[in-house]
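Please complete every field before forwarding. Incomplete forms are returned to the sender.

SECTION A: IDENTIFIERS
Entry label: holo-599
Bound molecule: flavin-adenine dinucleotide
Molecule representation: SMILES string

SECTION B: INPUTS
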Amino acid sequence: MPEYKAPLRDIKFVMNELLNSEQHYANLEGAEDATPDMVDAIIQEGAKFCEQVLSPLNQVGDQEGCTWSEDGVKTPTGFKEAYQQYVEGGWPSMTADPNYGGQGLPHSIGLVVSEMVGTCNWSWGMYPGLSHGATNTIEAHGTEEQKQTYLTKLISGEWTGTMCLTEPHCGSDLGTLRTKAEPNADGTYSITGTKIFISAGEHDMAENIVHIVLARLPGAPEGTKGISLFIVPKQLPNEDGSAGERNAVSCGSLEHKMGIHGNATCVMNFDGAKGWLIGPENKGLNCMFTFMNTARIGTAIQGLGAAELGFQGSLAYAKERLAMRSLSGPKNPDGIADPIIVHPDVRRMLLTQKVVAEGARALIYLAGQQVDVVHSGKTEEERKHADALLGFLTPIAKAFLTEIGYESANLGMQVFGGHGFIAEWGMEQNVRDSRIGMIYEGTTGIQALDLLGRKVLMTQGEALKVFTKQVHVFCKENADNEQLKEFIEPLAAINKEWGDLTMKVGMTAMKNREEVGAAAVDYLMYSGYAVFAYLWARMAKVALDKMAEGTSEEMFYNAKVQSARFYFKRLLPRTKTHAETMLAGADSLLDMPEEAFVI
Ligand SMILES: Cc1cc2nc3c(=O)[nH]c(=O)nc-3n(C[C@H](O)[C@H](O)[C@H](O)COP(=O)(O)OP(=O)(O)OC[C@H]3O[C@@H](n4cnc5c(N)ncnc54)[C@H](O)[C@@H]3O)c2cc1C
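SECTION C: PREDICTED COMPLEX
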């Protein structure tokens, strides 16, 4: 199992040198505490906790998994104790509202900690991750009483949260959900139905669990317009705020699954459980988007984590494992063979993981800054701009990063040859654990429809322009920089092509709506590579500027420029295939009659 080492140098590079966090925090309302020293101390502490406490539990969680009994669900050895330590360290409250016990730090700092937690032990990280989503939802839509009752407990970490959307017959299409909410005379509701695949739905890590549940009121309109949102606690809160009597919600069973064994994936039965409406009637899905957007950026981190963990494990291996000689002559003449890192194909696998992990970090932290501005930007204009940018970047981050993160996890395993397939090294666990990232929180297909349909075409390309304008300005500013030419020229070309392709897809979609569905995933992947091109060009610029100023870290900055070069030469060309495929038309997908699909 790779021993996780928090990539602090690169985290600092992205935060401070690429995204100028100090200035960013200084521009936010109420972020006075986020001084460079404070941010640094938080990240150092988080790194220590991840390396020393969570990382050693990653393989334990995979091997033991969770166990179900009539009395509840038991998490793997050490999970509960690690959670207690996490709570005692004040981590759950870091970015939450100070009025309810939070520390009010910017969300982007929370994302850095989430990255470290999620990389070293994704299954464990899902428990506090879901609580974070529940916290945000109640913070945004709850009444004052609900906030006093539930927020304070979620923020302190005493209680955890879940997100209950999926039912046996529906996941992507929540418009067909059946769980019922019958009003009671006392203003509460009786919730009845079955939810499946509920992450952290039942466990032994906290004394109470706050389920955020989608259900239908009697006579509600059909489809997504008739869904409301409810808080359904596992234990009903007492007058004094403590967890009281057991509510009629229980975990019927645990799913047996491919990966993330340490996280309990539960069938949850609501048998007339007492619930409280949160937000307006029939607007539940809108409110739930608060949760889902948090969870989508959270899931994007899974892609980053998969690439980072794969890279860390396979890099160490590639430097030690000896096999054959370099094509240009021995590099380790005293040994029986050369280390495999000398071989171009092994380099391809290592560098792919590296540029995916570092590019993903840049994208997620950039999205994190938009979250900060949406919450605490000083002007309405700033907040609106950040919201548009975040809306555009979220489906790309979620789907593109989990897709290429999974590819990277596979490459990490491949570097190990046969040993990659053996459990002891942890590489196959990384592959199994990261596969779910492309499925939950909206599959890649669903994210792609959101991006192309809702975010781009329905806004007449406005959301895309918010981003491409930034890229255009960057290209213009650096057009005369000879050293950057190898990055700026292809970036400017991609930026233009992106707009042209959007127009073409938009035109064909006006004649046939199926074209949107047929082009969507290629469009999303193309967009992901285009966003990465912008971020890698910017990272190359920072590194080149540093080297021009003179630095004692020449090797670090040089590696950045070389990584950018690898990205532009070897990954960006994938856009050519996506461009061609997205324009290939829906016919080749839809012409075959359904009856012809036979075995
Ligand atoms: C381990 C795990 C943990 C999970 N945790 C949670 C949780 O905590 N809470 C929760 O509520 N849910 C959770 N889920 C459920 C998850 O979010 C859903 O499984 C997911 O959203 C997909 O829904 P589905 O399984 O019903 O697939 P379907 O919706 O049946 O989709 C099947 C396939 O059809 C495709 N598809 C469907 N509609 C379209 C369309 N219009 N256009 C193109 N393609 C389409 C999908 O992309 C997919 O490939 C979890 C699932 C797993 C496996």
